[in-house]
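Hi team, as promised in this morning's meeting, here are the two structures we talked about. I've kept the exact order from the run log so nobody has to guess. The first one is mostly here for context; it's the second one we should focus on when we meet again. Sequence first, then the predicted structure tokens.
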Amino acid sequence: MQTNTPPRNTLRLTRRGRLVTLVAGAVAAGTAVAVPLLLLAGDRDEARPATLVIPEGWRASQVYDAVDKALRLPPGSTRKSLGKAALKLPGEAEGNPEGYLFPATYPIPEGATPESLLRTMVDTANDKYGLAPVTAGAQRNAMSLHQAVTVASIVQAEAGTKADMGKIARVILNRLARGMPLQMDSTVGYALEHDPAPAGQGSGQVQSPYNSYQRMGLPPTPIDNPGADAMRAALNPTPGDWLYFVTVRPGDTRFTADYDEHLRNVAEFHAVHQSAAPAQPGGGVPWSSSSAVPASPPSGG
């Protein structure tokens, strides 16, 4: 049964606990990507072996920038190469490699091109995701592989620790099963990156298929490239009935199915936030990030 969605002007929580109110003109993450390129020993004038490290949770845009820098190409070169890369993506991806640029350390051989590096990343993802346990896990949770990768990408964005991943995956699946919107700020943040000046005020008015406040179900694609731990969590979520979560302080994430208990956790977060805020330039807290949980209890079941 589809449940009522909470009012758009009520409180919502970010991953690791920061309360946020998204406003028009919210600035998308635009900081320069630092490429962890490890050049091995050798004369600087000679062709040298190198490795490119793709961290867990990087978005495709960050990977493209990293490849450009690693290969000393003009910005935007890797993105422009997608059409001729012949990537082996599932049909549901519709040519978008988001979620399939598997995080790992990749060698950069002599003569490497953007196309060859992207193909290696996607082929690595296909090798990992083609394993029988992955297929069985997706089927067990009534998901396609693409949906499982999408869930894993949200888990990757939301979880402050590896220990929280399985529970966050369960919150996502519980909300989907109950016909509730996910209401995750991480998906709204993805929309803002791709359209930094969307119409409307706040997350409820961001016009995007990635706005999980407005739209039911999963976003149309993954929102980053998840690592193995996040994928395992999506396929084997921790058993539980949780619908809400908030990180009151680092290492103290509270999961609950009871809205009143959730509000008490929110109140405790407020106390921690208020005491920590004066020490933080601009009033921020060091563990704040971007996700959301529902602001009011669901009705029905």
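And here is the second protein, the one for discussion:
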Amino acid sequence: MTATSGPGAGVLPHPPGALTAPSRTRRTLLRGLPLVPSVVLMLIFLAGPIAYCVYYAFTDMRLTGASATHFVGFGNFTKAFGDANFRNAVWLTLVFTVLSSIVGQNVLGLFLAALMRNASRAVRATASTVVVVSWVIPEVVAAYLLYAFFRREGELNTILRVLHLPQQNWLFTLPIVAVSVANVWRGTAFSMLVYSAALQEIPAEITEAAEVDGAGRWRKLWHVTLPMIRRSIGTNLMLNTLQTLSVFGLIFVMTRGGPGNRSETLPLYMYEQAFQDSLIGYGTAVALMLLVVGGLFSVLYLRLLRTEV
């Protein structure tokens, strides 16, 4: 056999059906073409307003007054960290989030899901209906219901009076606890549904093997159930936490952040500064910091969702 000589010697032709680099690029562009309208809309209605808000967080923009808007740099953020009311709002936001979301909704949701897993069909249907109804009720309606429950003449004090237990004005003495319980009541259904689906995916043979090895109820929960639904727990924690950080209507209707500022979380503090005191620039800076807090929680939960090697 003789070697081929001359220009192009040794260059193999493209196999049948193979795409050249320009062809692959053209095909990729054609596949991405249907996404162009969505990307444009996101840039206009999502990225645009976010960039607009980020800019005004560094200005002294006001709703009222004849003075022009000036760039103040980090002045709004310095003012916030020096304000005792802002630090109080940060603390109450963390308390509200931990009590009502990280602990309340997740623990109660997991408990209800585990309880209904072994219950009869009638019990499951009844419990699901009761819990889900509290979830689908509009936030303002739920807030008025819980306000009526916790007020001095409300149903909670009526129950305590029948049981001969001390009564109090819960919305005045323990406002942050009252709104936390209200958020637990309203949001537990979502956690219950997530954990019910996760528990159904656990293979029965794994649970039976743990029982054969002598694992009790708590050891089986800690060493079998929780590790197998770890990703569902992380996802649920992230979604619940982000939703709870932005709760406004529930607290506003029940306490308006009071008495004083004892239930004023960051969304209510931001609303007060931006729309009651007309400090749009300062209120936007507070909103930006709330966004950063939500981002930090998201990063933490995403680390929990990483697949173990």
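Starting points for discussion:
The chain has 15 helices and no strands.
The longest helix spans residues 84-117.
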